[in-house]
Design goal:
This protein is mainly alpha-helical and about 250 residues long. It is built from ten helices and three strands, in the order H-H-H-H-H-H-H-E-E-E-H-H-H. It is globular and about 55 Å long.
């Protein structure tokens, strides 16, 4: 059985021409977008936004970044559908047509931007930022989706008072542990695919978890007061994860 590094190598275009890479990125993006739309992981607008993100990640950071994106999508799709009836009762279930463009960009825009910066600067630290941002996106979604699927109650992260599951800033033990596991999975994919070296696994994982907790704090502190909406909170949380990863690397 091929490991992820072999799969990533197989996604590279033989010959290495920049135009060849553009062609491969476009083909991979088209196939992934059709699949994502077919399984209703994204809406029509979400498919367009996802295509832009996928293309930038592949072209800017290579097939390892694409495989990490696939892992985030898979975790998101699976956990969104788990316990769907429970989430409908809570009024927090995702729409059947999938995530919209604003949701896609809020969760993946930072990673795509970092891929663009890496393509221009060739500084490996931006690959680490991609890994951390994707780890956070997975952790946040999985923790929220599975937390709501397994319990009707949560604890507000700022005051620890009991609140209904799905409340902005609410966390649960099950959701948090599952979120950490999701961040670990995505970080492992990033290392196994060759996007980042193994020495950065713990950094990406830690930054992803910090970003997940930052999301809960921002939700409790600002989203509940209608200062920020959910998309803004998600974007800032992935940005925080990327920034934490870069800071940890420079400090180390």
């Amino acid at each position: 059985m091929q490991d992820l590094a072999s799969i990533a190598a197989g996604l590279e275009w033989v010959g290495g021409s920049p135009w060849h890479r553009v062609v491969v990125a476009a083909l991979v993006t088209a196939a992934f977008t059709v699949l994502a739309r077919w399984v209703r992981g994204v809406s029509r607008t979400g498919a367009v936004a996802g295509a832009v993100v996928c293309f930038l990640l592949y072209l800017g950071a290579g097939p390892g970044a694409f495989l990490a994106l696939v892992s985030v999508f898979a975790l998101t799709w699976i956990t969104t559908h788990l316990g769907y009836q429970q989430k409908q009762k809570l009024g927090t279930a995702e729409k059947r047509e999938g995530r919209t463009a604003s949701q896609v960009l809020a969760n993946l825009g930072v990673a795509a931007a970092c891929a663009g910066v890496y393509a221009v600067s060739a500084r490996p630290v931006f690959l680490l930022a991609i890994a951390a941002a994707l780890a956070e996106a997975a952790a946040d979604t999985v923790s929220s989706e599975l937390g709501q699927a397994t319990s009707e109650k949560a604890r507000l992260i700022t005051t620890w008072e009991e609140v209904p599951a799905g409340t902005d800033g609410g966390i649960s033990l099950t959701g948090t542990l599952c979120g950490i596991a999701a961040a670990a999975i995505v970080s492992a994919v990033c290392t196994l695919s060759g996007l980042v070296p193994w020495r950065w696994f713990a950094v990406a994982l830690t930054a992803g978890v910090v970003g997940m907790l930052a999301d809960s704090f921002l939700g409790a502190w600002l989203e509940r007061r209608h200062v920020l909406n959910n998309d803004a909170v998600n974007f800032l949380s992935t940005l925080a994860a990327a920034a934490v990863a870069v800071a940890m690397q420079f400090r180390g």
